[in-house]
Structure formats: structure tokens, C-alpha cells
Design a protein that fits this description.
Elements (H helix, E strand, L loop, with lengths): L2 H15 L4 H21 L6 H8 L6 E2 L5 E2 L1 H13 L11
Antiparallel strand pairs: 1-2
Helix pairs in contact: 2-4, 3-4
């Protein structure tokens, strides 16, 4: 690894090794709750059918596709992510 890349990697590793503060944990909980509300609303939109159908192609897995069945981690993430953004709720409040 070149010196500059190693330095960036070392700095990133040091940042990631820090303990997570209570304030950061509280903020993360709010972001997860916000996403859960957005994906719950988005899961019933017509545009949610395509990501669910694509996840179903992988077969049954250990993760849940919102409004669908179980799929593998990658397929579930690729299906659930777009459903959380279908209604563009983050545009309502710029802090989101």
C-alpha cells in the first residue's frame, strides 16, 4: 500500500475505532425509525413491486423484504432500500 493510501486507511481505522457516543446512538435510532416509517409507507406503493420481484428471484433467505417474503441479505437490502425512498420523505425536512 502506498504511503498516502496507508495514511488515509490508518486515519479511517482510528475514527472507526472510537467509541460511539450516547448522542450518536440516539440520533441513529431516530434515523432508523424515520427509515422504517418511510419504507412502511413506500412498501404499498406501485413502485415497490419491482424491487420485491427482483429479490424473490434469489430464493428464500434469512432477511425480510418489507411487504414480501424472506430473501438473502443482499437481495433484501437492494429491495428494501428503494422502497424507503419511493415517497421522497427526506425532501420534506432537510434535516432528514
Amino acid at each position: 500500500m502506498s504511503g498516502q493510501i496507508q495514511t488515509v486507511a490508518e486515519r479511517l481505522a482510528a475514527i472507526l475505532a472510537r467509541p460511539v457516543s450516547a448522542a450518536d446512538r440516539a440520533r441513529a435510532r431516530l434515523h432508523v425509525l424515520d427509515w422504517a416509517a418511510c419504507v412502511t409507507a413506500g412498501a404499498v406503493e406501485p413502485g415497490a413491486a419491482e424491487p420485491r420481484a427482483l429479490a424473490a428471484l434469489e430464493g428464500i433467505g434469512v432477511c425480510r423484504v418489507i411487504g414480501g417474503r424472506r430473501a438473502g441479505p443482499q437481495a433484501a437490502a437492494l429491495a428494501n432500500g428503494p422502497m424507503g425512498a419511493l415517497l421522497e420523505m427526506d425532501d420534506v425536512d432537510k434535516r432528514g
